[in-house]
Amino acid sequence: MNTKVLIVLIAVLMPAVLSRTRRYTKMQTNSLHKIRCDLLCLDRSKEAKATCKAQCRSNEQKPGTCPVSDNPKWEAACVEACNADSQCDGTQRCCHHSCGSTCSEPVDLLTVAGLPAMPTIEEPKEKKRAIVIRWSDGVGDAARAVPGPVFYVLEEQHHLGPKYEEIRLGEWNLLLRTNKTKVSLRNALKPGRWYRFRVAAVSSSGTRGFSAPSPPFTPRRGPRPPPSPKKLRVRPLGQNSNGTVTVKLEWKEPRSDLPVMRYKVFWSRRVKGLGGELDSVLVNHQTVPKDQNYIDIKDLQPNSMYFLQVQTISQFGLGKLRSDKASIFYNTTSTRNDPAPEPLQRRDTKKIKGLSLQKIVWYNNKLKARISWQPLPNVYEQPGRYYVHWKASKCNNPKKQRKEGLTATTELTSFELYELEYQCSYKVNVNSAPRVKKPDSELNLNVPSCEYFKRKVSNNTMTCET
């Protein structure tokens, strides 16, 4: 009976133990420990200081006493989650028991002599465009007689939004370290965010850890609408077969208090009104994702003046903030059907990148392979046209290996290769021109055996040649 209980206990605890084991296999980045080592080696010579710090970080001995338990919950699994204090976060120590080790908080950390007192942080105040944060230094506490200097580590966590929601707060981030008990922060906090702060006092003897978090704080100045996109530029992509023109409108992302949610692009043809001035007859618009800083505008009329605009849109709570529209004029008279002169550029900028296999599909005893690639940033000769070539380089059955390859043309950035054979290796190229000395891209494609697809599709009517 006891054996069964032990097996069940091990099965329950093992996933958690293994996750902790993975967590502590590497030395943890610990700002408190780093500062302690800096203070411990403060008086060493320049040559000896680096060696002193390295030894301190590898042989860390944290203050406090490990908890004592006759039957710790990790003991049943007999796993060593750590080997040294330096592998444990914050103030935790590597505590050994009869059948393993775990990272645990010391039981007497708040009463250990010789450590600086745990600070008490005050509510942040905003004064003259600066955020002032104060905390106690432990004066009057028994721990005030700490030998050597004391440094304070200030951390922050925050979330975006008009209302404070503790569950949305992010990870703690190091803000600064100082030997003062007051800091004045300028331009360190962003509008539209809620912040919390905590502070820890560190000496060469160690630390009692971080204080309780401060009350939540948000700067008085709310977020401003985002700025307009920067550096608008129009690139001609050539004339289409129906006589219309395609251009690429590009811009730079502006710096903003809030993350960009999306862009909105407007374009309109300008014609002369009754008074002789230019008027817009029809305004077109399209939404562009936040991570895309360009758009291809198609079907523009030749020999016409167009007014192009781009607007930045951010979200704050349930509301949206919109920038002013950045604008540029463009005359399609300058767009000819002849190839435009190619700008000076690095040799590899015309290479087609990101050529990859998406999936191999079996349907009705036929094989197809879908491939995709990244669009070229600049194509003048034939906008959006790609030349796909594939040829078998090796087949298990030589009779199935064609001497010549297959070629196809597409205006998309994906394509389905056809007439593929089982157990053949193919060399696939996607090029920006029909004839190239060296391929713009290359992909090796290996087609599995017929038996592989038969297992996948579970089709009893499918037969494979022997």
Characterize the structure shown.
There is one protein chain. The protein has 466 residues and is mainly β. The chain is built from four helices and 24 strands. It has helices at residues 2-23, 31-40, 46-58, 450-457; strands at 93-97, 100-104, 125-127, 130-134, 151-160, 173-178, 182-185, 193-203, 206-210, 230-239, 245-252, 260-272, 278-289, 294-300, 305-316, 319-322, 326-331, 356-363, 366-372, 386-395, 406-410, 414-417, 424-431, 443-446. Strands 12, 13, 15, 16 and 17 form a five-stranded antiparallel β-sheet that branches. The chain has a four-stranded antiparallel β-sheet with strand order 6-5-8-9, covered by helices on one side. Helix 2 (31-40) packs across helix 3 (46-58). The longest helix is centred in the N-terminal third of the chain and has 22 residues, at 2-23. The radius of gyration is 33 Å and the shape is flat. The two termini are 56 Å apart.
Key features?
disordered N terminus; single chain; 24 strands; 4-stranded antiparallel β-sheet; mainly beta; 4 helices; 466 residues; 5-stranded antiparallel β-sheet
Describe how the helices and strands are arranged.
Elements: H1 2-23, H2 31-40, H3 46-58, E1 93-97, E2 100-104, E3 125-127, E4 130-134, E5 151-160, E6 173-178, E7 182-185, E8 193-203, E9 206-210, E10 230-239, E11 245-252, E12 260-272, E13 278-289, E14 294-300, E15 305-316, E16 319-322, E17 326-331, E18 356-363, E19 366-372, E20 386-395, E21 406-410, E22 414-417, E23 424-431, E24 443-446, H4 450-457
Antiparallel strand pairs: 1-2, 3-4, 4-7, 5-6, 5-8, 8-9, 10-11, 11-14, 12-13, 12-15, 15-16, 15-17, 18-19, 19-22, 20-21, 20-23, 23-24
Helix pairs in contact: 2-3
